Amino acid sequence: MDELRVYDADPAKAFADMLEFLELSPSPLPDDWNPRSRKGFKIRWLQRFLKRPPFARSLLAGEQFRKRIVARPSKKLSPLGQAVMNTRKALLEWNRAPAPRVEMRPSFVQEIRDALQDDVNKLSHLLGRDLGHWLRGKDENRSLDKAA
């Protein structure tokens, strides 16, 4: 299983692994920790229309948008306004989908590794830890793990 997907499913494990890597004492996730998950949507134009309406902003825009635009937004919506907001929220919820997985060209990944190689080596030296796995691909790391 892809390591990032494991961390998506278990943020407490990601936090514990980070603390272990930094050689800090274990600690639970903070109570107020609220991750922003990767978000996607089904229909791009619908998302744009609902989040950044081209017209009737005062009618279709969400509460946060209205607070930024209108000098004194009214706290109470009319029954029609409340119905529009409920419909808008339902459409946003329906349009929600997992974000598509982003794949980078292998040549670009290698270019990034080459550009960061000196910095990773310097950090490895400073920490007294081998960070070579940061510069290798997943397949290379797996083959090294099996050999060990």
Q: Can you characterise this structure?
A:
This protein is mainly alpha-helical and 148 residues long. The protein folds into three domains: 1-31, no CATH class; 40-98; 103-148, no CATH class. Helix content is 58%, strand content 4%. The protein is built from eight helices and two strands. It has helices at 3-9, 11-21, 44-51, 57-60, 63-69, 79-95, 106-127, 138-147, and strands spanning 39-41, 96-98. A two-stranded antiparallel ribbon has the order 1-2. The protein is elongated and about 65 Å long. The two termini are 19 Å apart. The mean pLDDT is 78.
Q: What's the structural blueprint in terms of helices and strands?
A:
Blueprint: H1 3-9, H2 11-21, E1 39-41, H3 44-51, H4 57-60, H5 63-69, H6 79-95, E2 96-98, H7 106-127, H8 138-147
Antiparallel strand pairs: 1-2
Helix pairs in contact: 1-2
Which terms would index this structure?
148 residues; mainly alpha; 3 domains; 8 helices
Mean pLDDT score, rounded?
A: 78
List the domain count as a whole number: 3
Tally of extended strands? 2
Give the helix/strand class: mainly alpha
The end-to-end distance, rounded to whole angstroms, is: 19 Å
Parts with pLDDT < 50 across at least 5 consecutive residues: none
Main pleated sheet: 2 strands, antiparallel
| Strand/helix succession | HHEHHHHEHH
> How are the strands ordered across the major sheet?
1-2
